[in-house]
């Protein structure tokens, strides 16, 4: 992951990450303003307008708080920012890095330098050239800008040389993860001219992506039009986009039915209603995982027995049963089962065992009811209530406290006990270091790091992605990370999307929303 959490939870709850990639705290705006595009009829009006243009009407519970990709980080909102910004690479349906602004790349023999070759003739929407100088500026800004959410993801980057259309990236260590890292989640590239004023860029994004912004109502709505200068414009068949902040989840399905929207991410609780309404509901593969965050630098979690007591008190299946409506699964890792980084050997670590939990608490010196914890979260979240109930069963009293400014103490590592969820990263090494590394943004216990993790993750970086040993090496790093006492993972669920049947199928790129080749009513 990288610098930010994006609050994660079923809709009315929180989602952390990238200033919480899912404690979804703040993202639910309630608004709809008069749309600029031609009015569409109440039902089925999401087709093309009379003039033949097609409009995507997307309501999102992750509406961007920031439009500067350096500040927005790599949380769930990167999907919306990808309308405006392109990256050096993108992710295909297998999860591998493929060309985007860069047409190709190669490492040197040692593996500590990688050269990206950019496509020729490209421009940002303000007319500035897309060249290696722009790439160098984007990387340096992500590393150095004071409010960057991405600097922690770029620790392998020593320097960048700009040579026309060739960006030569010098690394501080052998790292074969860079093509995965430089995709939409971490390196969405803005015009260096516009980025000279980050505050203005934050409200007036300038990129080289498939669309350009014509209007933004902060926190509420963005209106975009197709970018004719996008490198793959011939495969973008949508003319206009109206992106709005999602209202309460219970009203999204009716909005889709009446044509107010034609595309929306939905909560699992709404999937059944969406299907009954005749909408297309599809599961977008992803790397989502929710967890409890413990600060081992603060009492009582500086006592290993208390940490283990919490681990054994958690019944993961209850989260799945109550929150995912059949779409989720238990996980004790920052990855769902089936993903290359998921470690089967760690699957049964710390099983649900309330009797053992009580015994550990007694050994730690806490009689039933004597251990009291504050669980601090950014918004109401049913996950918190489940945690409260489960810990009560072993004699731990939990008080849920809501702090709308939760992100500040979380990232300052001032909280003792919290929740968040992650949408994962295209680079598995990035996901692991974000959770378990000493400077990991999702490690509430920084600078704590589990023994053996540093060496294990270094080996991952040193292993080419096409090596036959890559999966084994990666899973070993996951195993080392899971020795951490700072995280208790609970469940995973995919991203659910509901859309009008007028919109064609989308590419099934894990965790990404890709509009390449997508049509609306055949346009």
Automatic annotation (TrEMBL):
Record's keyword terms, sorted: Signal, Transport
Keyword hit for Isomerase: no
Keyword Transport carried by entry: yes
SUPFAM superfamilies linked: Periplasmic binding protein-like II (SSF53850)
Listed GO biological process terms: peptide transport
InterPro entries: Peptide/Ni-bd, SBP_5, SBP_5_dom
One Gene Ontology CC term in the entry: ATP-binding cassette (ABC) transporter complex
Organism domain of life: Bacteria
Alphabetized Pfam families for the sequence: SBP_bac_5
Molecular function per GO: peptide transmembrane transporter activity
Domain Solute-binding protein family: 97-434
Protein family per UniProt: Belongs to the bacterial solute-binding protein 5 family.
Name of the protein in question: Peptide ABC transporter permease
Organism: Streptomyces liliifuscus
Lineage, broadest ranks: Bacteria, Bacillati, Actinomycetota, Actinomycetes, Kitasatosporales
